[in-house]
């Protein structure tokens, strides 16, 4: 561990400078105006992988954003670790809520502030530097492959196809991913569960144009009023999702496992304070940790319609829309949930409006076993660097491609993430503590060491 620490200490500034170079490329996958930035990001990644010691690294173009593949094969008999990460980031709007420009990384109070600082450029870059460290100190004990995509934040469509078409190239014993969180700076954890996702857009149309709300108001169904009521009837008074059949495939978690989850350090008061709410709210009969880790949820992500400009405009709008996402638990199938949602949503539409339902994207959840060589290697690595055995945790977030890795490549993933809930991923002022960045670089080489010792 001393060699590792020394190497990091001597190269700290350069590691950061390189990461900042990647962060400065505004690779927002959902916005077409950033298409060229996606290509620039992949070129930067190829250059950095080669500099770090990869035998080869190349850009594969796809129907969507390009994928980078790189590798260093030390011995065909050694185990192979496939590192996955994503170079795409979420949009930065609203811009005026950022304290510094999102693509101009700035260090304040020991944290890197920028879009992608954590999710996932910062976490991905830890792997590049851990790889460099192993190459330069002659300690790389596994073959290593890198697969870096640019569509994670929009559903990983092209990567799934890439996996189907390159099974042989991607052959590996385990997939290693840092794109999740740990419980706290001094409480390390390994993610053993991810939720799936169904993401829908709905549109309610009433009259063929916006109407004068005096001449027509009270006599014509108002799409915004109607949509509000329809959304309200998606859940009941116990915050149970009201879509018929929705819970049919939900795996009930045993009392034992729930008791185990309850031992996880969690302070409800601090949680509420950190997001400035006076009371937590969720499905009746479950704790916050359970509501996030083992229960599905339904949320409106955005809603629009009618007049929202300054001052008053007296209209009865023609249309109202909303984006609605459902987080799913393992065993629920996203396509099936899409269908159940669509059927139910249409069935509750009253006379006087027409309803359109579109599925935007989705994916399946994941649970990872802890009785594997790979999990034990990750656990030992974290124990070495954090001084305590990491806690296995089911996260509420989603990385849909992880279940495809298992389905298509037949390989399980280890989700050894170093982010914190307070990193504000997807939000203004996303950040990543330097402590976590360097701790990650220190921990990853130990995973390789223990994994090779299997
Ligand atoms: N890295 C996140 C997922 C994540 C974060 C999982 C923290 C666990 C802990 C990933 O980039 C992400 O944001 N995924 C999307 C899914 C996607 C289909 C848009 C999500 O969870 O909203
Ligand atoms: Mn991510
Ligand atoms: Mn994300």
Structure description:
The chain folds into 3 domains: 2-194 and 365-453, Aminopeptidase; 196-250 and 296-363, Alpha-Beta Plaits, CATH 3.30.70; 253-289, no CATH class. It has a 6-stranded mixed beta sheet with strand order 1-2-6-3-7-17, sandwiched between helices. With 454 residues, the protein is of the alpha+beta class. The two termini are 19 Å apart. Helices cover 33% and strands 21% of the residues. One manganese (II) ion is lined by residues 86, 119-120, 152, 179.
List descriptors.
454 residues; alpha+beta; Aminopeptidase; Alpha-Beta Plaits; 6-stranded mixed sheet; 4-stranded antiparallel sheet; 12 helices; 33% helix; globular; binds manganese (II) ion
Structure summarized in a few sentences:
By secondary structure, the protein is of the alpha+beta class. It has helices spanning 2-23, 35-52, 121-136, 157-165, 223-232, 255-262, 268-274, 288-293, 334-347, 373-386, 401-409, 434-452; strands spanning 56-60, 67-72, 80-86, 106-108, 111-113, 143-149, 174-177, 189-194, 196-205, 211-212, 297-305, 315-316, 319-328, 354-363, 366-367, 391-394, 413-415, 431-433.
What order do the helices and strands come in, and which of them pair?
Blueprint lengths: L1 H22 L11 H18 L3 E5 L6 E6 L7 E7 L19 E3 L2 E3 L7 H16 L6 E7 L7 H9 L8 E4 L11 E6 L1 E10 L5 E2 L10 H10 L22 H8 L5 H7 L13 H6 L3 E9 L9 E2 L2 E10 L5 H14 L6 E10 L2 E2 L5 H14 L4 E4 L6 H9 L3 E3 L15 E3 H19 L2
Parallel strand pairs: 3-6, 3-7, 7-17, 8-16
Antiparallel strand pairs: 1-2, 2-6, 4-5, 5-18, 8-15, 9-13, 9-14, 10-12, 11-13
Helix pairs in contact: 1-3, 1-12, 2-3, 3-12, 4-11, 10-12
The structure holds ligand BES and manganese (II) ion (2 copies).
The site of one manganese (II) ion (MN) has 5 residues, from loops.
């Amino acid at each position: 561990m001393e060699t590792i620490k020394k190497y990091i200490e001597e190269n700290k500034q350069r590691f950061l400078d390189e990461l900042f170079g990647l962060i400065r490329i505004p690779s927002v996958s959902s916005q077409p105006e950033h298409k060229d930035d996606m290509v620039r990001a992949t070129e930067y990644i190829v250059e950095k992988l080669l500099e770090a010691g990869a035998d080869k690294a190349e850009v594969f173009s796809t129907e969507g954003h390009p994928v980078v593949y790189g590798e260093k094969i030390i011995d065909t008999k050694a185990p192979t670790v496939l590192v996955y990460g994503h170079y795409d980031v979420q949009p930065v709007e609203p811009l005026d809520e950022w304290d510094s420009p999102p693509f101009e990384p700035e260090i304040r109070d020991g944290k890197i502030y920028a879009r992608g600082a954590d999710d996932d450029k910062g976490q991905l870059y830890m792997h590049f530097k851990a790889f460099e460290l192993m190459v330069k100190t002659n300690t790389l004990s596994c073959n290593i492959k890198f697969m870096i995509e640019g569509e994670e934040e929009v559903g990983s469509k092209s990567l799934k196809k890439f996996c189907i078409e390159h099974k042989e190239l991607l052959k590996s014993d385990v997939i290693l991913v840092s794109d999740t969180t740990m419980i706290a700076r001094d409480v390390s954890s390994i993610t053993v569960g991810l939720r799936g996702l169904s993401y829908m857009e709905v549109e309610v149309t009433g009259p063929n144009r916006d109407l004068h709300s005096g001449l027509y108001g009270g006599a014509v169904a108002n799409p915004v009023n109607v949509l509000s009521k329809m959304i309200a009837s998606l859940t009941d008074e116990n915050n149970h999702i009201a879509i018929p059949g929705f819970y049919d495939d939900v795996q009930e978690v045993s009392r034992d496992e729930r008791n185990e989850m309850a031992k996880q350090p969690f302070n409800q008061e601090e949680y509420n304070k950190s997001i400035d709410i006076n009371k937590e709210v969720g499905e009746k009969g479950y704790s916050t940790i359970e509501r996030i880790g083992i229960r599905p949820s339904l949320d409106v992500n955005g809603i629009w319609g009618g007049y929202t400009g300054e001052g008053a405009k007296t209209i009865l709008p023609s249309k109202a829309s909303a984006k609605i996402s459902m987080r799913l638990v393992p065993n629920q199938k996203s396509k099936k949930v899409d269908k159940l949602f669509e059927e139910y949503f249409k069935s509750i539409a009253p006379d006087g409006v027409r309803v359109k339902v579109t599925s935007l994207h989705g994916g399946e959840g994941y649970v990872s076993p802890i009785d594997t060589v790979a999990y034990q290697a990750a656990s030992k690595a974290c124990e070495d660097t954090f001084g305590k055995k990491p806690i296995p945790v089911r996260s509420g977030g989603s990385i849909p491609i992880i279940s495809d890795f298992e389905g298509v490549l037949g390989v399980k993933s280890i989700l050894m993430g170093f982010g914190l809930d307070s990193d504000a991923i997807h939000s203004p002022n996303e950040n990543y503590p330097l402590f976590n960045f360097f701790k990650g670089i220190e921990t990853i080489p130990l995973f390789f060491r223990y994994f090779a010792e299997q």
